[in-house]
Each structure stands twice: as C-alpha cells, then as structure tokens.
Amino acid sequence: MPEFAHRRTDARIRLLGRDGTPLAGAAVTVAQTRQAFGFGNIGFDFIDPIAGPPPQEIAAATDRGDAEPEDTGAGVDVLADAYLSLFNAVTLPFYWRLFEPVRGVTDAARLRRTAQWFRDRGVRVKGHPLVWHTLAPTWLLDLDDRAVEEAVRERIRTVVAGFAGTVDLWDAINEAVILPAFTAEDNALTRLAQRHGRLGMVRMAFEEARAAGPDARLVLNDFDLSPAYERIIDESLDAGVPIDAIGLQTHMHQGFRGEEEIGDVLDRFARFGLPLQLTETTLVSGDLMPPHIVDLNDYVVDQWPSTPAGEARQADEIVRHYRTAFAHPAVESVTYWGLTDAGAWLGAPAGLVRADGSRKPAYDALHDLIRGQWWTPPESVAADADGVVAVRGFAGTYRVTVDAAGAEDAAGAEDAAGADVELPAGPFVADAVLVEQR
C-alpha cells in the first residue's frame, strides 16, 4: 500500500460534451490544482496592504502629520507569492476588541475585503475566533451580566451572518478550558463564564453561530490538550452542541514535541469521531524558549533572532510535524501560525519567511512536501470508448482539459474547454463537462 494511501484518490472521470455525449478517445491533460487537505496560515500581514489601515490609525496618522504608514517588512507582492505558492487556507483575525473597539463601530469592511481577496485566489477562509476572553472589548466591563450575554450573542449573530458566503468556517469559541479561571486581565467574558460554566459558554457560542450560519462549519479550539479539554468535548456532545471539528493548538516555542507525543494527542481526540484541525502551529528558528516557562506570554526578551542552526532545526522539525499530521486519518488541516517573522506572535522567529521576505529552509522543506511529494503531477491520457479516464493521485481539485490535437477527433468536443473536478480520497466516479455551456 502506498504511503498516505488514505489521502489518495482512485477516481474515474467521465468526459462529456455539451450535449452529454461521452468524449470517446479524447486526449486530455489531467492536472491537480489544489489539495483536499487544508494547508493554512494566518493572513494577518495582508489586511493593511489589501484593505488599508484601520480608520482609527488613519485618524491618528493625520493628527501626527504622517504622510503615509511606515513600511515594516516585505511588500504584499512578495508575501502573496510566498503564500499562494504554498497554502490553500487562511485564518483571519476577528478578535473582538480589535474588531469592535467602540461599540457599533467595526472593522468588518477591511476584513471582508481581505477575505474576498483570498477567496478570489482559491484560498479557503476561516475566522478566529467568535468568542474569547482575551481581547474582549473593554466597553463590556461597564455592562451587567445580562447585557454582556446579549452583547456576546449579538456579536456572534451579526458577524456570522454578515460574512456568510465569504467566511463559512469559524473558531466558535477559543480556549474554553481556562475561560472561567482566566485572571490575567479583567474581562467580562470570564465573569460571564463563572456564571454559566464552560458548557454554557460553549453551547451559547455554537448555537448562536449555527442559527446565524446554518451552512457554516464551527470549530471548538483550545491550547489545553489535557483530559480537561476532552471532558468539555464529551459534555458538549452529550448536550447536543453542534461541533463540526475539534481544534488543537500546537505552539512549540519550547521545541518540537516529537512524533510520539503529537500522535498520542491525535489519537486521544480522534475518539470523538470528528475531524481534527491543528489550528495554531509554530516552530521557532532561533533559541528555544526555556522549558520552565508555563505561560508562553510570560517570556519577554528584547530580541529573539533567527539563527542558521535554528533554521536548520526548524526545517527538520516542520517536516516531522507535518508528516505526523498528514499520516493521521482524523486530521483534515494544519494551520501554521505566522508566514513571516515581522510582527510574529511573542516576537518569536517562528515564521517561514524572514522579515525581509526571504524564505527560510523550513519554507522550502514544507514546499517540497505540499507541492512536491504530496502533489500529483500533470498527466496526458486518452479516454476509453466510454469517455472515461482514470486518475490516481492525492485527493483534491483536478483540471481536466481536452488537448487541442485530440479535440478534433472526439465526438462532441468542438469548442472544447476545461473542467474542474473535486476528487475526494478513495474510489470515486465523477462527470466532467469539457465543453463550454452557451
């Protein structure tokens, strides 16, 4: 059995003309255009270049007399090429305090433009997160618990409904395990969670999101991968909470956890029978964070540079991590948390691209996996007497195009055009209409 057999498709595609006639003997080229597996990253770096800075920053710059914003890293064209050459999914930030710093004044327009920019380029868009205690708006603190709850519900409804068709995948609630006990900063969400409990908060997030977006996919996401998280999932599923996927954060600023530990985590959470998303993955290319640090946010240094030795280690570890995830049948996606070192979380050199836009060895190593080893090369084949061609490769979208030379001899293939066909893993039969509809 070939490696990663569960990620592969063994499909038969029937080639049909405009009138439904099989294109017997047609010479076609079959080329993969995207993977079914989600290879994602965050798109935070793209928001300002695509949609402009937030209105409050423009106003502040005007007051200071600044002519234009300062350039802090690689240009969007450089980053876009690096992104689109590797990733087919993106996570955009919907942190409530930044999204709605003043009640009723939101950043929806900029995020919608950015999301559409990615969708126009064939990238799936995820919103992160709908509910989270960190970065909750400070204006919530002035409300009583009843008003806070209504504000949370309204936030979920308006965001999910407002972005329907553009963003249809959401982290519905983030880090529910710690939510009732979070004391690092005063916030109204912790206060509400102490009243409703973890299950009450999870139920609220999912039920409001599902009502506002019946077609959306909703994820429960957490960094705490202990049995406490498993208990929340058990309780939520027993209560009928409509969870579509389980999110597992794997920030590794203190070093790669190893294939055995990652595999054990995946096995434990696979028992729920839901798809697993590795939602937040990082591996640093500099010195590792000391192992005694419990809360990663507590590690603060003036500089945290990328180093040649660290970059070599990062490249090795990213291959090991992605191979472990890709090999597990329950995993549907991996999202790396940072394309570039510029503005990276905690200032860590965890990006795949340096601040100047140059690519690290980890980028090249990941590219070799995603667009090399796990990508089906184009193939020219001839349809049989029934207009059928066989495709064996990795699950995803394939472009089937009638070759110009063969089109003249294929019945019904005049004005031949290409067709995109979605091929899931496993045996599959699909129809491809290769003639333009007029």
Question: Could you characterize the architecture of this molecule?
Answer:
The protein is built from twelve helices and 15 strands. The chain folds into two domains: 5-34 and 380-433, Immunoglobulins (Immunoglobulin-like), CATH 2.60.40; 37-373, TIM Barrel (Alpha-Beta Barrel), CATH 3.20.20.80. By secondary structure, it is α/β, with parallel strands linked by helices. β7 (217-222), α8 and β8 (245-252) form a beta-alpha-beta unit. α6 (145-162) runs parallel beside α7 (188-212) and α9 (259-270) packs parallel to α10 (308-327). An eight-stranded parallel β-sheet has the order 5-4-3-10-9-8-7-6, covered by helices on one side. A four-stranded antiparallel β-sheet has the order 11-2-13-14. Strands 12-1-15 form a three-stranded mixed β-sheet, with no helix packed on it. The radius of gyration is 24 Å and the shape is globular. InterPro entries: GH, GH10, GH10_dom.
Order of helices and strands: EEEHHHEHHEHEHEHEHEHEHEEEHEE
CATH architecture descriptor name of the largest domain: Alpha-Beta Barrel
**CATH T-level topology of the largest domain:** TIM Barrel
Can you tell me the overall shape? Answer: globular
Structural class: alpha/beta
CATH superfamily of the largest domain: Glycosidases
* Rg over C-alpha atoms, rounded to the nearest angstrom: 24 Å
Read across the widest sheet, the strand sequence of neighbours is 5-4-3-10-9-8-7-6
Distance between the termini: 44 Å
Name the average pLDDT.
Answer: 91
CATH level 1 class label of the largest domain: Alpha Beta
Strand content: 15-25%
List the uncertain runs. 67-72, 406-415
Instruction: Count every beta strand, where a strand is a DSSP E run of 2 or more residues.
Output: 15
Total domain units: 2
Helical residues, percent: 25-40%
Largest sheet descriptor: 8 strands, parallel
Number of helices: 12
Domain GH10: 73-369
Protein name: Beta-xylanase
Keywords: Carbohydrate metabolism, Glycosidase, Hydrolase, Polysaccharide degradation, Signal, Xylan degradation
InterPro entries: GH (IPR017853), GH10 (IPR044846), GH10_dom (IPR001000)
